[in-house]
Amino acid sequence: MMLNRELLGPSLFLALFTLYAIVAWQIPLLPFEEYETVTSATLPKVYAAFGIVVCLLSIGATLLKPKEQTAELAQRLEKDDVLRTFALLVLMVLYSAALEPIGFLISTSAFLLVGFFVMGERRKKILLFASIPVAVVFWFLMTQVLGIYLVPGDLWS
Amino acid sequence: MFDGIMLGLSTVLDWNNLLYVIVGCFVGTFIGMLPGLGPITAIALMIPITYSIGADSGMILMAGVYYGAIFGGSTSSILINAPGVAGTVASSFDGYPLAKQGHAGKALAIAAYSSFIGGTIGAILLMVAAPLLAKVSLSFQSPDYVVLMFLGLTAIAAFSNKGQFLKAMMMTVFGLMLATVGIDPSSGTERFTFGQADLLDGISFLLVAMATFALAEALINVVRPEKKEVKSINDSDTPQIGSTKLSKAEVKEMAPTVGRSSLLGFIVGVLPGAGATIASFMAYATERNLAPKALKDKFGKGSLRGLAAPESANNAACTGSFVPLLTLGIPGSGTTAIMLGALIAYGIQPGPMLMEENPSVFWAVIVSMYFGNIVLLILNLPLIPYFAKVLAMPKSVLTIMILFFSLIGVYLVSFNTFDLFMMVGFALVALVLRILAFPMAPLLLGFILGDMIERNFRRSMMLSDGSLSFLWERPLTLSIFIISILVLLFPLKDFITQRRVDKAALKANQEHT
After folding, report:
1. Is some CB atom of chain A closer than 8 A to the CB atom of B507?
2. How many CA atoms does the CB half-sphere of B22 hold within 13 Å?
């Protein structure tokens, strides 16, 4: 049976809150906290317990809903759109990883250019003029006007 | 109060701050006009910039962005029936039909004048209400704050969209949990850091705000492009702007509506969790009910009152939402939650002492609202045709620019690429949650209030010797606590009613087949 969209969210949260609860119960207490009513683990435990109760209520409420209603909630996502989003997430990770080693100017220009391309932009004018000049102007504003340090690139320095 | 106003005036009239008001309104309008981007995203994108300027200027800039974004949202609602902000959805009911009838200029002018009057009335009420409430709140103690914050968290969940209460509660708890990551300030114990040194200081508020709003907002528009009837400003059948002039009779027709809606909007805005969206819908419904039969039928087909009501109410509500923020230090909405986070980052604790300790911030924000409204009227109205061109910007460029500014904004504050990786992770989680229809504002509110709740809860428990009796020992605490419980139980009524309706509908359906 495919997991209903309305059940998926609360189920994911239930798993997360349970994991949180397990870690919360393992928070080490310092010697002076032993006899205190409120310790560093108190509120995390309360949050975890409350969160689990809310998740169970939500799952219960969804299961009690008439079937016709829950079926309507399914909303399809286009494969191309999902792939494009995934590509953007990967691109952001790569940009974050490349920022310090190769520097702001090159990594930002590449990020913008590839990003526009991933978004379906094929006009050369936009691809070039909305990427490299933007990175250069931003770099100039930050470093030369506002005096903010931007990484030149560990590989070149 | 007079001294305060003079102090606020002198702060705002500083050339730099005046420039920030103008820039804030301008940038806010620009971002608010883009469908799918609201004031929270606009303010989140501004935070890295505000870190490099003073607290007064930063708050002035953010308040300007807030107004501008609401006004910008109205423009896209009216011109292309694509509200950039939930608070301007009601404006499209009559604004878009007006534009389709060839009165786009008039509709935009009504939006601008109503917003101006709503914002100005709101600012006057704020000027009176905030200091009074600040004085009263000076008597508040830790237990009162615990229950007040509890009220804020439950109210934002209770006022979320129909059927989203439990989802909003889950998001609130998730936000509270995120706030516990890092070294516990009271005992020094490490919590949920998993040995990562980068997590010892906790998760940055800017990172969470940017990931859950700016990044997730941009990505949701990629994964689920708007399929409904949204027209580009370049489409041939898109209404021309036309004249922005209003006749005397039209002004006379709308004047009472604007007055009533502004007042209603302000009151709704002050309530935690309510905000501009509820205010605009309430004002629209009220005016529809109050209108004579002939005018009532025009609602939804291009009624002037139908446009003026939500426009004045949403701006007044924006101003109203500053009351709990400035006087109690409790944000009533996602937008004010971001501002609270920014204030804390400046080392300023909003609340009753704000007026005493940082009067220049307190009064500058209030006075800047007058200027913000004037700027919106004199700068934005004549520039509307040019602003409208923003709607023609290629989506490919816009999305990537938002991603870039969000990432680099966080990097410029922390200079730590670990934050960027974490931000992408949060954006992915936020994206999945958005697809599953989970609201984001409760998460942010829970995250920002989490630390304050824990501190005040500990203090209260210490004062009451480890007993929960602090909840009922003082009438004020008890009253707020009871209200919170009632607010928490409020959606239960809807749930039971809905279940009855569903059962009846299902039964009727089965009998029919």
Report:
1. no
2. 9
Distance in angstroms between the alpha carbons of the first and the last residue of chain A: 57
Asked whether B157 and B169 are in contact (CB, 8 A), the reply is yes
Question: Which of B142, B207, B223 to mutate against chain A (most A CBs within 10 Å)?
Answer: B223
Distance CA B138, CA B244 (A): 47
CA–CA gap between residue B512 and residue A140 (Å, rounded): 71
CB B330 within 8 A of CB B352: no
Nearest CA in chain B to A60: B166
Q: Nearest 5 degrees, angle CA A93-CA A98-CA A100?
A: 120
Instruction: Read off the pLDDT of residues A93-141 as tens digits, 9 standing for 90 and up.
Output: 999 999 999 999 999 999 999 999 999 988 888 888 889 999 999 888 8
Contacts of B346 (CB under 8 A, 6+ apart): B55, B58
- Look at the block and give the residue holding tokens 């990967």: A90
Residue numbers of B between 218 and 247 with CB closer than 8 Å to A: 219, 222-225
Please name the residue of chain A whose CA is at the shortest distance from the CA of residue B509.
A68
Among A residues 43-82, those touching chain B with beta carbons less than 8 Å apart: 43-44, 47-48, 50-51, 54-55, 57-58, 61, 64-66, 68-69, 75, 77, 81-82
* Residue B430 · residue B216 · CB < 8 Å: yes
Our separate counts of H helices and E strands in chain B read 24, 2
What is the pLDDT at residue B427? 95
A42 pLDDT more than 80: yes
Q: Do A85 and B431 touch (CB under 8 A)?
A: yes
Residue pair A75/A8 in contact (Cβ under 8 Å)? The answer is no
Q: DSSP of B243-302, one letter per residue?
A: -----HHHHHHHHHHHHHHHHHHHHHHHSTT-HHHHHHHHHHHHHHHHS-HHHHTTTTTT
Q: Is B301 on the interface with A (CB under 8 A)?
A: no
Residues in chain B: 513
Query: Residue B265 class from Cβ within 10 Å (0-12 exposed, 13-18 middle, 19+ buried)?
Result: buried
Could you please report the per-residue DSSP string of B93-127?
HHHHHHIIIIIHHHHHHHHHHHHHHHHHHHHHHHH
Contact B428 A89 (CB under 8 A): yes
A/B interface, count of CB pairs below 8 Å:
162
CB contact under 8 Å between A84 and B223, yes or no, is yes
| B270 contacts B332 by C-beta, under 8 angstroms | yes
Scanning B142-171 for CB atoms below 8 A from A yields 166-167, 169-170
**Which chain B residues in 9-68 lie under 8 Å from chain A, judged by CB atoms?**
52
B231 or A75: whose pLDDT is higher? A75
List, for chain B, all residue ranges whose pLDDT scores fall below the cut of 50. 228-237
A25 touches chain B (CB under 8 A): no
pLDDT value of residue B85: 67
Across the interface, whether the CB atoms of A92 and B427 are under 8 A apart is answered yes
Alpha carbon of B436 to those of A66, B236, B425, B513: distances in Å?
19, 36, 17, 32
Say yes or no: ipTM exceeds 0.85.
yes
Give just the sign of the alpha carbon dihedral B80, B81, B87, B91.
Answer: positive
pTM: 0.81
Q: Does an H or E element contain B211, and which?
A: none
